[in-house]
Amino acid sequence: MCIDQMWIISTHATRVTANVSSVYPKDVxxxxxxxxxxxxxxxxxxxxxxxxxxSRYGMNEIYTYTGNILIAVNPFQRLPHxxxxxxxxxxxxxxxxxxxxxxxxxxxxxxxLMMNYGISQAILVSGESGAGKTESTxxxxxxxxxxxxxxxxxxxxVQQQVLESNPxxxxxxxxxxxxxxxxxxxxxxxxxxxxxxxxxxxxxxxTYLLERSRVCQISDPERNYHCFYMLCAAPPExxxxxxxxxxxxxHYLNQSNCIKLDGMDDSSEYxxxxxxxxxxxxxxxxxxxxFRVVAAILHLxxxxxxxxxxxxxxxxxxxxxxxxxxxxxxxxxxxxxxxxESLCKRVMVTRGESIVRNLDSRAAALSRDALARIVYSxxxxxxxxxINTTIGQDPTSKLLIGVLDIYGFESFKTNSFEQFCINLTxxxxxxxFNQHVFKMEQEEYTKEEIDWSYIQFVDNQDxxxxxxxxxxxxxxxxxxxCMLRNSNHEIFAEKLYQKFKDNPHFSRPKFSRSDFTIHxxxxxxxxxxxxxxxxxxxxxxxxxxxxxHASTCPFVSSLFPPSEESTKSSKSTKxxxxxxxxxxxxxxxxxxxxxxxxHYMRCIKPNNVLKPAIFENSNVLQQLRCGGVLEAxxxxxxxxxxxxxxxxxxxxxxxxxxxxxxxRYDEVTATNMLLEKxxxxxxxxxxxxxxxxxxxxxxxxxxxxxxxxxxxSKIQRKVRSFLARRNFIQLRMxxxxxxxxxxxxxxxxxxxxxxxxxxxxxxxxxxxxxxARKNYKDLYSxxxxxxxxxxxxxxxxxxxxxxxxxxxxxxxxxxxxDLASSRYMGLKKAxxxxxxxxRGRLARRELRKLKMAAKESGxxxxxxxxxxxxxxxxxxxxxLEKRMRTDMEEAKTQENKKLQQQLQELQFQSKETxxxxxxxxxxxxxxxxxAALVPEIQVDTTHVDKLTAENENLKxxxxxxxxxxxxxxxxxxxxxxxxxxxxKKATDAESKINGLTNTMLSFxxxxxxxxxxxxxxxxxxxxxxxxxxxxxxxxxxxxxxxxSPLHVEQMTPHGTPRAPKDYGNFAHPxxxxxxxxxxxxxxxxxSEGKPVAAITIYKCLVHWKIFETEKTSVFDRLIQIFGSAxxxxxxxxxxxxxxxxxxxxxxILQKSLKAVGSAGTTPHKRPQSQSSFLGRMVFRxxxxxxxxxxxxxxxxxxxxxxxxxxxxxxxxxxxxMIRDNVKxxxxxxxxxxxxxxxxxxxxxxxxxxxxxxxIVDNLNELLNILRENCVPAIFxxxxxxxxxxxxxxxxxxxxxxxxxxxxxSNGEYVKQGLAQLEVWCGEVKPEYAGSAxxxxxxIRQAVGFLVIFKKFRISYDEIVxxxxxxxxxxxxxxxxxxxxxxxxxxxxxxxxxYLGLAxx
Length: 1400
What we know:
The protein is about 60% helix and about 10% strand. It is of the alpha+beta class and about 1400 residues long. It comes from Aegilops tauschii subsp. strangulata.
């Protein structure tokens, strides 16, 4: 092998020989997913760019930056996760380049520049046919409409209206080409107009460069515009109306062999186009006129001409041509003879007269084609103007963002006039692109304040002069040739060869007589001039203008308004060049773009088979060249193609000079030191970046690799030395340890013998001492125990005797007093019970009589009066009985006091008796002792007998007292039982009295209701009679009867008449209603866990009979209170208070109200089933209980059920406001938390933990507010469940979108935050937390996967089935590709796992 050659092993394991000079260096440290901005590549060359795009395309990363240029590779599949509302929220306000490349980022940048600097913006979307330009345009408009945020009439946004117009424009402006079955043959510039506030105020669609020549000439295998084929495949009635047949029968369509397209049904497309016309506001009459014009063009193309009888004249060739001519005239609604003359003759105007000149057959055919082209062009312009009128424009708007969707560079085997015009457009746009890219490069250098010189870039002005220079350009020569009689394409080609034979950008192909080649910026294109002249001619014939303006069809007439020439009666034929018109429109487009700040988006088609996962290198490389991307990279390479921030540069090349990593040097100094170390020249140091010339990055990498290799060998040498020394030290330490163990064992044996001898002596000494001490302690303990037992027994005997004596006295006194009191209370309670029972029996008997008499209103009134008297009498008796009971209690208290005094006296007497007895015993004992000392003294037996008798009397008295005490205690127990029975009977009697009172009140309420209904019926009867009188007299002044004005019933917001002021006895006063409203408007707190306001409202409404009436305004005033409470939607305390009141009141109404079931009442609407949020969450649960003593079953009217429905809506609204407030507070904290984790890489989490603590504090604060306001637990549980679901969605989406978040340290940080949330759920009661923690399953499994060490050891089944069963394969693939270990620098999952995920 030569020195200049080298072997290369390709990805397909094939070996290729290549020249060293043609081999480019490779960046071995680039990530698997490539780089998001290709200007950050270490080596900017075509293979590096192509490899980066292919790597990203293989991972479905279809968007890549090249500086400010966005490259979009068509995936040929739907990726809905890239274009949802959450993605738009993520890119809203984000800096350009902060997030992954996306059309939303480019649209957001254009919107921000427009709003901040007041400069209109333009986004140029280009690419070849099938590259996805239309879809990219839709995404851009979707984001701009999201930022504008204004809804137009009909409920559709401006962006939606623009998109709805696409089917119409595609039907009339798209056609099949060689590379795409639905190629746009016109340029579309969509202007979105904004007001000063950034809201969309209007929009307009500007079309450029419509390929008019396609109407008359098409090449094989292309097709004409879709609308012609759709109309030929229309339903039979439409084809019969327009006299159409198969598409292959028409000259304008059968020039190509391609009539039908695979996968496209023209009949279905016709119906869809009709529907789209209805949507954009085109009426059925206008639609009929449009398709009539299209059919006329088809018939016009089938008119053939032959030589006439006169010289140089022409006539329709045969009957078939005459039929098509007549049909075209009928469809145009003009005169057939006039149409034929306008095609076959011309009027020449001289100074004094007009001369009619005949046209030969060729000129007549050209006149026919000119008429077809001008009619189709006017029709397309009318459609665009109609769509703009429907969308609506803002003429006062000074800010706009335009989106340009235009065809790209084309180079086929056969290139005609259409490709010539399209490539001219791309040359113009490429010049604009080059100038803008060069300007951005200069702005980058100026921003970084570096020294730079002028950079040469390829300017294609010479090619533009070759094509459009006037005079002498190709277009000028083409127009000149077209204006000459009997000229052809060979004459035109010969003029080109003579004119541009020395031009370096023009050449003549070999073996060709009429072709020519232009050296475009994207490559050489050879054009065939065969049809150049025919496709360029566009005669503006005044006869055609006048003929169609005089049409009886208003639509056709409006397409051709009178011109200035026709008003001056100037009858002449004016030549119009399609090429010149094309050039003028192109110039207008460039002027529009020059007034805006441009942004570029290049769409790439990865393959020609239009299938996903196929990346053709040569095809993509050609498109990159045609799109100017490689030219932009080349411009960058001419200056300083490699640029790195100081941090990145120092981090990569610090191995060249390790001392720069110290704290003494800043980043700029460290960068200079590294560059001086390698002796580089020509670089530049900016403010934030270092700029390197081409090839310097490769030199730095070579030096870095050299240093790393030397360091590796040095490390190996040190490691080997360390291992040898460690082995020697281990051997020496082992020998020393062995010797020490042997010597130690000998010494330990000797020491053990000495220790045993000393221990045996000490044991003997202590044993003898212990035995002697034990004997002494046993003797001492035995003697002490015997003495204490004897003394204790004597003391206990004495104590028991005294205790028994005292207890006997106490029991006797209490028993006697209680027996006396119980006997009295028993008699009294029995009397009261008997009286109550008898009175209750009489009351029940009277109640039965009242029920029988309650059927008549008079009897009810009498019963009412009688019951009132009975209630008064019963009330008086109850008070009397209460007073008697109080007197009995007082008497009982006094009797108890007397008995207690007697008991105390008896106890005192017993005590004195005991004292006397004790003194006597002491005296007797003293006398006995004295008698023992003096035995010879004579004893006075009389005194002894007397004392003995007194002693016996005292003992008898004590026994009698004890008997009395026992009897007293028995009486006390009996009186206590009798008193309890009397109290029980009195309580029963009182409850019966209350029941009778309630029964009387219910009768009174029924009587009042009947009176009110009678009064209402009388008023209604009186009202009908007055109305009848008014209708009979027809007098406008007879508005009163007997001097009383006629009150016409007014309707309430509930749909019922307002109640009259007088409703009888049950009408609630206005003062009471005002007092209720004033009371519940304020926060009046809670009582025993229940809201006071809700309970008060319910009791008042029940008391006033509001639920049972059909006319009331109280509900409206209550609804106003709840409505005003919702206005303060920022205060969770107020919202929680009103949520507690409204939900409690709603639950009570749900359990209380029932529909009226009687046949005599007006049927109301049945309450709707609880299918709403409140019905699903509250009324299906059984754990919400209500005090049933408070709830009453009420037969409610329709206003009550309507009030309940409105209350349900308020409960749902209050609940949603609380939830949204909390989500709004948590959104900022979650955003800071996830951003903080990525920005503080390598640092502690102490500062970041405050965000999670703030989240927990917000949750605790919300829980305390809800609990303090007594909100039902089911609401609290549901709120926290939805909040945790929101946290899960926010964190997980940020993890998928942000590459920097998929790191090891970030996973540890998020896991710590989730642990805090789990601790919070454990501390909160389950009735409040519920299953909220389960909602975090996605982010918990994703974070658990991130913090796994050495992921390459995990298999595919373990990840999918064990670690992350909840996550989808797409989500796992996204996480695996974005993961990077910033802590231990370990690899991600293995290649087998990547392949398994990619296959699914």
